[in-house]
């Protein structure tokens, strides 16, 4: 309801959220997501409220899906070792990782015309600056209430075989 209002220029007038606003928000959200672990992120993690991280994961993916072209965003997302330093989502972990991966991939396809090959993103929810990347994701990274805190990467195999996010 709020989104419908904010996306309707005649009703929202100066509060209208247009593609330019989504693009600026996406740049900010991605910059936060790829920023190395620091005191601010660590404090968020220590509050022991997984819902905060659920919101961050959802917001980054949503903003990317609504964003227009930004050279800064294309450059950020095109990095060879693109690493998202985010806390582990509290719920729907697999879905949130799939959605973020799909949003990054789709943004690059839309505005760059291609993805790095092979296309993958690194997920680091260890809470600490870390250069070690383990293997590709495993079921225990994404399923259940597991508390695996490692660095791993996701690639096209994260997407459901019957669905293209």
How would you explain this protein's 3D organization?
By secondary structure, this protein is mainly α. It has one domain (1-158). It has helices at residues 2-6, 9-12, 19-34, 39-46, 50-66, 71-77, 93-111, 139-142, and strands spanning 83-85, 120-124, 151-155.
Question: What's a quick, concise take on this entry?
Answer:
The protein has about 160 residues and is mostly helical. The chain has eight helices and three strands, in the order ααααααβαβαβ.
- Strand tally is 3
Strand content: 5-15%
**Helical element count?**
8
What characterizes the major β-sheet? 3 strands, mixed
Our count of domains comes out at 1
The radius of gyration over CA amounts to: 16 Å
SSE topology string: HHHHHHEHEHE
Q: Separation of termini? A: 24 Å
The secondary structure category is mainly alpha
Strand order of the largest sheet: 1-2-3
Shape: globular
Low-confidence stretches: none
Estimate the helix proportion, in percent: 40-55%
Mean pLDDT: 82
Q: What topology does this entry show?
A:
Elements: H1 2-6, H2 9-12, H3 19-34, H4 39-46, H5 50-66, H6 71-77, E1 83-85, H7 93-111, E2 120-124, H8 139-142, E3 151-155
Features:
three-stranded mixed sheet; 165 residues; 8 helices; mainly alpha; 48% helix; single chain
């Amino acid at each position: 309801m709020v989104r419908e209002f904010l996306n309707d220029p005649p009703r929202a007038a100066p509060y209208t959220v247009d593609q330019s606003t989504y693009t600026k928000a996406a740049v900010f959200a991605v910059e936060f997501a790829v920023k190395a672990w620091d005191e601010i992120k660590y404090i968020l993690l220590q509050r022991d409220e997984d819902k905060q991280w659920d919101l961050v994961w959802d917001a980054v993916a949503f903003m990317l899906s609504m964003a227009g072209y930004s050279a800064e965003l294309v450059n950020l997302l095109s990095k060879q070792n693109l690493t998202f330093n985010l806390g582990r989502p509290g719920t729907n972990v697999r879905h949130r990782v799939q959605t973020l991966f799909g949003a990054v991939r789709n943004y690059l396809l839309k505005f760059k015309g291609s993805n790095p090959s092979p296309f993958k993103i690194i997920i680091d929810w260890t809470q600490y600056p870390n250069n070690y990347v383990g293997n590709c994701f495993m079921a225990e990274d994404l399923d259940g209430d597991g508390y695996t805190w490692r660095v791993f990467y996701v690639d096209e195999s994260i997407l459901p075989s019957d669905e293209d996010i």
